[in-house]
Amino acid sequence: MTSTLDAAAVRADFPLLDETIHGQRLVYLDSAATSQKPRAVIDAEVDFLTRANAAVHRGAHTLAAEATELFEDARAAVAGFVGAQPEQLVWTSGATAGINLVAYAIGNATAGRGAPASARFALAPGDELVITESEHHANLIPWQELAARTGAALKHIPVRDDGTIDTDAAASVISDRTSVVAFPHVSNVLGIVNPVAEFVALARSAGAVTVLDACQSAPHLPLDLPALGVDLAVFSGHKMLGPYGVGALYGRSDVLEALPPFLTGGSMITTVTLDEAKYLPPPQRFEAGTQPVSQAIGLAAAVRYLDSVGMDAVHAHETALGERMGEGLRSIPGIRLLGDPASGSGAGHVERVALWAFEVEGVHAHDAGQFLDSRGIAVRVGHHCAQPLHRRFGVTATVRASAALYNTADEVDAFLDAVSGIRSFFGVAS
């Protein structure tokens, strides 16, 4: 049975939510861009920096040993949060770095680097990299660059008018030449939870590696990456109540063990001569140089906080907020939602997170965002690092509102009330 989330108690743990904007109580609906941080996360970083700050995996003194223990405990906590083992979790600076790590590692395998097992990732002209039309640029441009370096072809799976990914088309796009299938668990523009199992099955039938962008799912859904069956996945700390500058790459053990390193240098080697180097096994093989130690400890505090609230409760609470937001936006004249199966063709009800991007008829997204900001409501405006997806829907920019566990129904209502006044304020209401 899912417990009920006490939003008032949760809000009290987030200091910034007490702030006022333009003399009005802040309504923060931009968590898809970056989430607010609870005191537990802030305190965890401060405590490490003031009590145990030292380089990890490098010293024999007491502080270094304590810092290393805290760092590896953090790895275990974050890995456990996504159902993984500690050795399956590589620290990165964020999801963008994680995807680039994978793309460049595959490029290195193509160049003949790595152990014999690395050859399984090597690309040749005519091989295919498959993405979707709904990608964040971070899960698009690295694959464009890899295709350019290797001669592989980059193909995409289209998005339907209602925002769902065309799984029928996916079956024809993914072929026996497909080497990588990269896709989002949840679109950062459409908010729709994509059918991971279908993509994994198609990729496996083609012998392709799957790469999942879990940035918009990790903070909002119970997440078990091994159970999802993906080969690799990335997520970012700052979107899931954690610090900036830290994220993680999850990988199946056999995949990580076969991938050659991307960044090289200190802390990821066993033996170095002037002519060659031998590398550590994962995850350290992919963690060259100084790591985001205090940030990793802060991220561990974030996942422990989420666990204490309960991810089932988080998901249920946010689902109710998202439904309230969607119903309210549909009822406002002149509002066009992107990715709305409830009013689209064919897909019917789909699972989603509490995120909606919309166009205000006759008002530029930036102007709409400024209007909402004047009322203390923080939203995101622009193309949300997803220009091809916006182009697919015939717009250059949208307003995006995204809720998290600390938001309330009253805040959603305040947002909807403000949105209903945008067009009349700018003199375009019919």
UniProtKB/TrEMBL annotation:
<dbReference type="GO" id="GO:0016829">
    <property type="term" value="F:lyase activity"/>
</dbReference>
<dbReference type="Pfam" id="PF00266">
    <property type="entry name" value="Aminotran_5"/>
</dbReference>
<dbReference type="InterPro" id="IPR000192">
    <property type="entry name" value="Aminotrans_V_dom"/>
</dbReference>
<protein>
    <recommendedName>
        <fullName>Cysteine desulfurase</fullName>
        <ecNumber>2.8.1.7</ecNumber>
    </recommendedName>
</protein>
<comment type="similarity">
    <text>Belongs to the class-V pyridoxal-phosphate-dependent aminotransferase family. Csd subfamily.</text>
</comment>
<dbReference type="GO" id="GO:0030170">
    <property type="term" value="F:pyridoxal phosphate binding"/>
</dbReference>
<feature type="domain" description="Aminotransferase class V">
    <location>
        <begin position="27"/>
        <end position="415"/>
    </location>
</feature>
<keyword id="KW-0808">Transferase</keyword>
<keyword id="KW-0663">Pyridoxal phosphate</keyword>
<dbReference type="InterPro" id="IPR020578">
    <property type="entry name" value="Aminotrans_V_PyrdxlP_BS"/>
</dbReference>
<keyword id="KW-0456">Lyase</keyword>
<dbReference type="InterPro" id="IPR015421">
    <property type="entry name" value="PyrdxlP-dep_Trfase_major"/>
</dbReference>
<dbReference type="InterPro" id="IPR015424">
    <property type="entry name" value="PyrdxlP-dep_Trfase"/>
</dbReference>
<dbReference type="InterPro" id="IPR015422">
    <property type="entry name" value="PyrdxlP-dep_Trfase_small"/>
</dbReference>
<dbReference type="InterPro" id="IPR010970">
    <property type="entry name" value="Cys_dSase_SufS"/>
</dbReference>
<dbReference type="GO" id="GO:0006534">
    <property type="term" value="P:cysteine metabolic process"/>
</dbReference>
<dbReference type="GO" id="GO:0031071">
    <property type="term" value="F:cysteine desulfurase activity"/>
</dbReference>
<comment type="function">
    <text>Catalyzes the removal of elemental sulfur and selenium atoms from L-cysteine, L-cystine, L-selenocysteine, and L-selenocystine to produce L-alanine.</text>
</comment>
